[in-house]
Design goal:
The chain is of the alpha/beta class. Helices cover 36% and strands 18% of the residues. α7 links the parallel β7 and β8. α6 crosses α9 and α7 runs parallel beside α13.
Length: 354
């Protein structure tokens, strides 16, 4: 049997599909398991031993996207796929699932795309306080069988494997940045895919300066893309981000090295984003900041024994939202959160780790 999982994007969403990968492999140990993903999130699954083959596509638009999709459809059909599961629910993923011509095609029951699937899963309207891992599980249930035990964070952890070469590369990078083997490392991610999930840089700066001031042998590393240079400079707030400084930057690092860095860290601080879910694949303590999204749906999926602190803005009439328009206009779900509760949570987790 050949099974294809279709989940093009995004990084955190792909991480949250990994318990489903494990369930399929347990149920069908001899099956050939394929995964279709976009290039940005591909490192999340590219080294997963349960996956036999990964198809990597790019986030294109216009005629280039159609050309790539038609080429990919021919490639997928050549694999003689028996089961195709659309874990995304978008038009592109639905079409690619249908284009496999698999005898069994599973996807959400969405108006205009029902014809693409042989098995349609109800998709409740509105914002449901149910974890994304469980929503993904609904899509594989017709394949693994309804009698399979529902996932738990203890048994079905999110996963992201990295090669030893990535760990070696991170050790070399940290040495070049002046981080000593005995230094305590805090990883912070202040960016986000949209402005609705960006906690103010001034608040991140206050947290960073306070935490590195607590201990001389403590370094804070800011994660981000190359486009986050100005944000990193604002958070550093006069601190020297050069090698040997207290606040350092890791901008544009490959995703597998970001995962390896989490293993070295004593704490991760960040919002609801891809790096937070990558951190959840390790045992690093996490301080997670939630604004427009709810922890019930997106909290790090990890065993209860691992340290985790959730900081959120509390109940609001507009929360959660679809992150398209801030109706109050002031992003109060995030601005209502001051740096003090984040600092307190970080200190508590760092103390428990010590």
């Amino acid at each position: 049997m050949t099974i294809l999982l279709v989940r093009p994007r995004l990084i955190g969403d792909v991480v949250l599909t990994t318990p489903s990968i494990q369930a399929l492999r347990r149920r069908f140990p001899d099956a050939r398991l394929l995964y279709l993903v976009e290039a940005l999130a591909a490192p999340v699954v590219s080294h997963n031993p349960a996956i036999n083959e990964t198809f990597v596509i790019r986030h294109r638009r216009g005629w280039r996207r159609w050309l790539e999709d038609f080429r990919l459809a021919r490639q997928l059909r050549s694999r003689r796929i028996d089961v195709a599961i659309d874990l995304h629910g978008g038009p592109r993923s639905g079409w690619l699932t249908w284009a496999t011509r698999a005898a069994m095609r599973v996807g959400y029951d969405v108006s205009g795309r029902r014809w693409m699937f042989t098995h349609r899963i109800p998709r409740p309207r509105g914002y449901q306080p149910r974890h994304s891992v469980l929503n993904q599980w609904d899509l594989i249930a017709p394949v693994v069988g309804a009698d399979v035990e529902r996932p738990s964070p203890e048994r079905d952890r999110v996963q992201m494997m990295v090669p030893d070469a990535s760990r070696s590369a991170v050790r070399e990078r940290l040495t070049s940045l002046g981080v000593a083997p005995d230094d305590e490392v805090i990883v912070m991610h202040a960016s986000a895919g949209n402005q609705f999930r960006r906690w103010p840089a001034s608040s991140f700066r206050e947290v960073a300066r306070t935490l590195i001031g607590d201990r001389p042998a403590r370094r804070l590393i800011l994660l981000g893309d190359r486009s986050d240079e100005s944000l990193a400079a604002e958070i550093a707030g006069g601190s020297d981000p050069a090698p040997g400084g207290r606040i350092l930057t890791a901008l544009g690092w490959p995703l597998d090295q970001v995962r390896a860095l989490m293993e070295r860290a004593s704490l991760f601080v960040g919002g609801d984003s891809g790096p937070m879910h990558i951190a959840a694949t390790t045992d690093v303590p996490i301080v997670a900041i939630f604004g427009p999204t709810l922890p019930a749906l997106w909290t790090p999926w990890r065993p209860a024994r691992l340290p985790l602190a959730i900081v959120e803005g509390g109940p609001l009439p507009c929360r959660p939202c679809d992150q398209r328009v801030c109706h109050p206009g002031d992003f109060r779900c995030l601005r209502n959160i001051g740096p003090e509760p984040v600092i307190a949570a970080a200190r508590q987790l760092l103390g428990s780790r010590a």
